[in-house]
Write a structure and sequence with these properties.
Strand order of the largest sheet: 1-10-7-12-4
Largest sheet: 5 strands, antiparallel
Distance between the termini: 70 Å
Number of helices: 1
Order of helices and strands: HEEEEEEEEEEEE
Shape: globular
Number of strands: 12
Radius of gyration: 20 Å
Strand content: 35-45%
Structural class: mainly beta
Helix content: 10-25%
Length: about 180
């Protein structure tokens, strides 16, 4: 019986170590630029029937082709929210216009409160954060990534830092593969 238990433990340990080594091999540096543009025109809302967001990462079959149409949406969250789709045919460039505001503060002073816009790559082995950009709530921004891998699909997460999560943030956004702003 001890030999069987030892054999099973050896197999489990071997499997765990091989998975860790394989997962570490998938981590690599991205060669891209990113930034934030603050001098953009305020867009109050977008007329859209697109389902803009969800509470979980998008499934592998929820794909939005950015070569045919930009992706528009709105959000209202207190923790984080995902785009419902992953984005393809972006030619290595992703631009996100974000206009955010507080929908509920429960009397808290929100001076200097921020939110994050995160770019995440979908991979066979899971999702990989590429970059997170922090923007101030209450003003319009364009967050962009240029030179990302154009053969990969990406999605976005809108979130709040941990110390701000007792407020709700609403807003609208537009995701594009084309630079409409600068």
């Amino acid at each position: 019986m001890k030999k069987i238990i030892s054999f099973i433990l050896t197999l489990c340990l071997t499997f765990c170590l091989s998975n860790s080594a394989f997962a570490m091999d998938t981590q690599f540096d991205e060669d891209f630029t990113y930034g934030v543009i603050t001098d953009v025109d305020l867009v109050e809302s977008y007329d859209s029937t697109i389902t803009p967001r969800g509470g979980t990462p998008p499934s592998s079959n929820s794909v939005w082709d950015l070569s045919s149409e930009d992706y528009y949406g709105s959000f209202d969250f207190d923790n984080l929210i995902y785009t419902n789709n992953r984005f393809e045919n972006h030619n290595g460039n992703l631009y996100v216009y974000v206009n955010s505001y507080f929908t509920e503060t429960w009397g808290r002073d929100t001076t200097g409160f921020t939110m994050d816009v995160s770019l995440v790559k979908m991979t066979v082995l899971g999702n990989k954060y590429i970059s997170t950009v922090e923007i101030e709530v209450g003003r319009p921004y364009v967050v962009y990534w240029e030179g990302v891998d154009d053969n990969e699909d990406y999605y976005f997460i809108f979130s709040q830092p941990y110390n701000h999560r007792d407020c709700r943030i609403g807003g609208n956004f537009r995701i594009s593969a084309t630079n409409h702003w600068f």
